[in-house]
Amino acid sequence: MKKTHESLYNLIANENRDESVVLAINLLENKEITIKELYENVLSASLYNIVCNDGDKECIWREHIRSAIVRTIMECTTPYIINEKKPNNGLKVIVVCPSEEYHEIGAKMVHDFFELAGYQSIFVGANTPLDEIVSSVHFVKPDYLALSVTNYYNLVKAKRIVEAVKNELPSITVLAGGQAMNYENALKAVSADIHLSTLDDILKFKGDVK
Ligand code: B12
Predict the structure, then answer these.
(1) Is the C-beta atom of 97 inside 6 A of ligand 1?
(2) pLDDT beneath 50, residues of the chain
(3) Is the CB of 151 under 6 A from ligand 1?
(4) Which of 133, 107, 135 is nearest to 121 (CA)?
(5) Predicted TM-score of the model (pTM)
(6) Residue 89 CA, ligand 1 centroid: distance in Å
């Protein structure tokens, strides 16, 4: 990892919100970090490295603090994403997580990457009830629904979402991702059309056939 990127990583690990936000903006402004490097090498890495051991009374609330710093930095990337966006490709995607799925940082990154790739992306986000997802599909009529599932137990809800949105809009293609989708046979269990794992997968995705 580049030294400046490592400094940013350490500031987040030390819960130094102010200095990490200032450094992130400076790096972006001076083109010393790309959005992809920031998201994958620094922000994601700083979250994946959190390990809570049994009885550790400091872990969960510190996880909340670090997640909030990461979210703040991600909000600051918006002007850079707007500047770097590819021309609009005429395709619409809704990015959403099932109800009770509060892990939404990955979904927000996915939204930003669809935007960079030229899609009109609508970020509905965490903890969205089934009826609301169907309603968003009804009104927006997207080409794709990008479903982000982290918690294994939410795969059952994901399957219901796939069934309901296909019933509402048969032409829709459901893209599924997130840590729960890495389990063997998860794609089949959820009946989604395509499993995408990384942010690069989104940039390479060309509306692949089902
Ligand atoms: C941050 C975090 C939280 C935060 C979330 C904050 C937020 N606003 O999102 C908070 C504190 C709320 C939280 C709560 C909980 N968490 Co938590 N959390 C994490 C942690 C540390 C990081 C997750 C994260 O954001 N990673 C960074 C993002 C960027 O990565 P990502 O989500 O994988 O997304 C990437 C890819 O997967 C992909 N992607 C994601 N979605 C999609 C979709 C598509 C279409 C595509 C193309 C790609 C894609 O793109 C992203 C960029 O590469 C993980 C630890 C870990 N090892 O992951 C635990 C972890 C996910 N949590 C866990 C658990 C158990 C919980 C809690 C139940 C208990 C708790 N710790 O309090 C609650 C449950 C809340 C709920 N009901 O959902 C477990 C899940 C285990 C499981 N059953 O599967 C983990 C793995 C920790 C562990 N080792 O036990 N958590």
Answers:
(1) no
(2) 209-210
(3) yes
(4) 107
(5) 0.96
(6) 30
